[in-house]
Amino acid sequence: MANRELYPPVEPYESGLLDVGDGDRIHWEMCGNPDGKPAVFLHGGPGGGILPDFRRFFDPSAYRIVLFDQRGCGQSLPHAGDMNVSLERNTTKHLVDDIERLREHLSIDRWLAFGGSWGSTLALAYAQAHPDRVTEMVLRGVWLVRPADEAWGFTPTGAAHLFPAEWAAFRDAIPASEQDDLLAAYGRRLTDPDPAVRVPAAKAWIGWELTANTLLPVPPPDLDESVIMAFARITHHYIAAGCFLPDEGLLAGVDRIRHIPAVIVQGRYDMKTPPDQAWDLHRAWPEAEFHIVEDAGHGGSEPGTRHLLIEATDRFAP
């Protein structure tokens, strides 16, 4: 069977800004069928924001598709590209609470949760906090954020072996005297009041983040400085704090969601969130359908991965 293409482009029929407290307002939008099966799309990053193509993983005639920009990014306010915006109230618990508040605001009883990369992390955290509100889960590029998972991305012992030139650019944006703790060094620069210090650091950070997104290289997106700054600040903020997850991690809470039908899709050559994470999740959750895509990396748009994700949402459609 030929690989499934994304559904045709669709525009939102309703959108808004939801006051979630703490001075934050999250941008949300709904697409597809107002009377369709509710589904919430959880974007990656953290700090990545939503893109129009994210709407296209769902049949718009069958689904009421809900997307939103997480705190500080996309069209949510205030935007973390502004250095005066505090990230103190931007944590995983805050985002989980925001999802639940959005569900209530939209008068949705239960919905399918779809997430890739950081979106898979957030989907797992949300479902474990509110298992009675999730009908099904579709997860891609699973990121469990265990210490070893973080080490893979941000120390010389992991992905750096596969992308030596890109790692060197990321490392050498920091003076040699501070390279023994790159996360701390980037944290100092990303919060520096001088744009001549923080902007180059943000660009180096996002350059490394985008290195391993797909199996085959693709041109980097053209992003404005505010988006780069927000993405780097928010992503670093989460990674430096272990994504604010409990010490026992997400696998310890899987028993709370094992009754939820789920599909896990993982690229064999995912160099951002390697397949052992998705495999460990499946071992803890054997009821979840598990797929390895042999010719894919981390991206959700790669043909084999895209096919399985759309196949899953089609199967879960009413």
TrEMBL record:
This is Proline iminopeptidase. Its EC number is 3.4.11.5. It comes from the Bacteria. It comes from Actinomadura meridiana. It catalyses: Release of N-terminal proline from a peptide. Belongs to the peptidase S33 family. Its main location: cytoplasm. NCBIfam families: pro_imino_pep_1. The keyword Cytoplasm applies. InterPro entries: AB_hydrolase_1, AB_hydrolase_fold, Peptidase_S33, Pro_iminopeptidase. Residues 40-299 form the AB hydrolase-1 domain. GO terms for molecular function: aminopeptidase activity. Keywords: Aminopeptidase, Cytoplasm, Hydrolase, Protease.
